[in-house]
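Expect chain and fold; thus:
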Amino acid sequence: MNVSSVMNTALSGMRTQTNKVSAIASNVANISTPGYGRIDPDTLTADEGQSVDPAMELTGLIQAEQSFKANAVVFETGADIWDLLMSIKRD
């Protein structure tokens, strides 16, 4: 696996977590909306008839935050390695 593949995988992971946070935000915003079908943050599909549980949404938000941070660290490390390889190539 090369450096750009690692960075692309990390970027994909960050996008996934961003989508999860968006679904969670939608669920929380519509918590008291009658007939609202909760969006499952993992599959991004509507769970008809399932009510929004604030504790579960907060747990999902914390998980998404930690996953995003982990992917961001991988991306930054890949960028640092890329910079190092480019400086070696220039010399």
